[in-house]
Amino acid sequence: MHSRILNGLIVASAMLAIAAGSWALDQRMLLFVFKPLTTALILWRAWPRGRDVPASRVALLTGLALSWLGDVALLWPQGGFVPGLIAFLLGHIAYTIAFTRQHRFLAQPAALATYALIAGAVLAFLWAHVPEGLRVPVACYVLALTAMSAQTAVVGLSAQGDERQRGRLLMLGGALFMASDAILATNKFAQPLPAASLWILATYWAAQWCIASWLKPPAPRAPPA
Fold it and tell me: Fewer CB within 10 Å, N or C, the chain?
């Protein structure tokens, strides 16, 4: 499918999911359809990419698939929270593996320090509001998210030549993922935020799109002779 058409479908599906989660009326059926569909479309976008780096491709596609499972689990905000958290934690580990195939893990200490400070500040703010039974899994998740986001900065800052644009997109994806989860956690544990669904999902899918776009697209097919 043409990239512009697929991107249009991703945006349309994301808007429908965000609208379904924002309306005062119960529109859960639309949310159940379009939330998983949006992530599936991003996975579809990533599927033909990255054939030049098969190990990174497999790990990244695994991260997207685990994210899809997390999206499905979180359709049930109470019972599905811990399974969703675990799915996303494993997804971040898969992403980090993908990003370390060509770049040494945490090769930019300043990036790790910056993300660790941000994550630590958010966690400290929320800690008293997090139920005791969730504190260990939440802390483990934050650790995985921080490492993943810092590694996107390693890749982005190290990218050269024709990889530079994709590296910058990946770095943006890591920052957006951190922002999305900070908004989600604040809304869930501390206090409801206005238009929370809009900001959480918009930054989340933008992050996933940027991550999927890091893989090199396939070469265009040669015209028939």
Answer: C
